[in-house]
Amino acid sequence: MVRIFFLFFLVLYSPGMFVSYAQPVVISGTSPSYANTSFEFLKTTDWITGTEEVAGTCQVSENGDFRIEIPLGETEQLYLYMGIYRGFFYAEPGKSYRLVLPERQDKSPEDMLNPYFEPVEVHIGLSNFSNSDLNMLIMMFDDAYIPYYDKHVNNLYIKTDINRLEEDIRNIENPFRDYPGVFFRQYRQYHYGVLKLLANQQRVQSQSDEYFNDQPVQYNNPAYAGLFNQVYDKYFVFFGRSPEGSQIYADINQSGSYRALSATLSGTINFSNDTLKELIMLKQIHDEFYGNQFSRSGLIKILDSLMIETKIERHRYIGQNIRGKITRLQPGYEPPQFELQDTDGNLVKLSDFRGSYVYLNFCTCQSYACLNEFNMLTALYQKHKDHLVILTIATDPMEEILRQFLAKNKYDWKFLHYDNQPSVIRDYDIRAFPTYFLIGPDGKLIFSPADSPAENFEQKLFEAMRSRGDL
Length: 471
Known about the structure:
Blueprint: E1 3-5, E2 23-30, E3 38-46, E4 51-59, E5 65-72, E6 76-82, E7 85-91, E8 96-100, H1 109-112, E9 120-123, E10 125-126, H2 134-154, H3 162-173, H4 182-198, H5 204-211, H6 222-231, H7 235-240, H8 247-254, H9 258-268, H10 274-288, H11 296-309, H12 313-327, E11 339-342, E12 347-349, E13 357-363, H13 368-384, E14 388-394, H14 399-408, E15 414-417, H15 423-427, E16 435-439, E17 445-450, H16 457-467
Parallel strand pairs: 1-9, 2-8, 7-9, 13-14, 14-15
Antiparallel strand pairs: 2-5, 3-4, 3-6, 6-7, 8-10, 11-12, 11-15, 13-16, 16-17
Helix pairs in contact: 2-4, 4-6, 8-9, 8-11, 10-11, 10-12, 11-12
C-alpha cells in the first residue's frame, strides 16, 4: 500500500462502540472537488479480522462544504475512502478538526471491478493545526522512526548489538519524550517493541511480558495492534512445540474444550488476567483455522464456548466476526450473500433460490476452460432443471462483454455480472476460473468448492440428495 503524508494533519474521533461516555468531535472542511458526494467516516472495531464500521456519514454541499459531529469515548484512528485514496487521521474526544483533503481522483473502471484494489494511504491534512496536535506529533515521529525501521528490516537475519539498538531508540525518542498524552506515549512504546522484535533482541515471551501481560489492552491504538499481531503470530504452533505446551493439541484437536485450553495456558504461562489470554485465543483461532495443525471443528467449538463464557463484550463481538469469516465458505454454513444484476438489469439475490439446489459457478467468458464446461452445464441443466438451479457469475471486465456473449450463445440458465458488487470475488475467495459451489435448499453450502461437471459432479449431486432425503 502506497503511503503519502500531507503537510498538515488532522485529528478525528468517532463513537466508541464499547465505551459508556463519549464527547462530540466536530469535523468540517471545504473540498470543491467532492461537491455533491457523501463522506463515510469509518473506524476499525476489530483488528484481528479487520472489521470496519461506520462512525458517521455526512453530505458534501454543492460548493464542497461538509460538517459532521461524531461522539467518541477515547482517541481513535478514523479514516475515509475517497476514490483511489484511503485517508486517515487520529481524533481526540471533544476537539474540532478542519480537514484538508487531497484533490478528488476517482477509481478507474478497472479499479472499481478489482476486489483486491489497494488504495493509496494518506494522512489527512488539517488546516487548524498546531505543533502539539496528536496528528502532527505522529507524523513527525513516523518520519524519525521509519528510517530506523527500514534499517532493522534490512538486517532481519543479523542480530543487532543491544547497545546500538538502545541508541537508535534514544535517538528517535529524544525529541518527543517531553510531550504529554497517553496515546502518543503508547504509540511510541509499541513501535519500539517492533524494533526490538525485528532486531532479534527479545524473545516472544519476554515481549509478551513487557508489552502485554499485566497491561491494559489498547483496542483502539493501531501501534498496539501492530505489535500484538507480530508477537502472537503462530503463537499456538510455537507454544505447542514446547513440553509444557504440547497439551494444547489434545485440548483443541481431541476435546475441542475451551476450559481445557484455558487451563493449559494459565498453568504454563503467567497471564495476569483472562483478558490477554482470551485475545490471544481469538487471534489463534482466526489465524490457524486454515492451517494444518489444528482441528477446524475443535477451533469452532472453542470459539463458541469462549463467546458464551467471556465477560468482555468486545471479545464476544470479535468472536462473532471471526466465526462469520471462517465459516462463510465451510460446508454446513450459509455462504456470503449477494445481489447482482442479470443482463436485463434485474437484481438477483442468492436468497431468491432458497428451496432449490444451487450449482453456483464463477467464470469469465474469455476462458477456454469455462467455455468448454458451458457445454457440459447445458446438458446438466436440461437433465436436472426441475430440482437444480445453475447460476453463473461472470467476471469479465465489462457487462457488455457478457451481454454480447449471451446474444451469440443461447444458454438457458441464469447469468449475472459482478460489477455492482465486486467484493463477491473476495467473499468467495475466487482464485481460478471456473470455480463451483453447491448450495442446498436450506441455503447452506454442501460442497465448497464443488466438483466441476467434468469431475463427476452429477454423481456427487445424487449422493448429496439421497443423503438428505430428496431422492
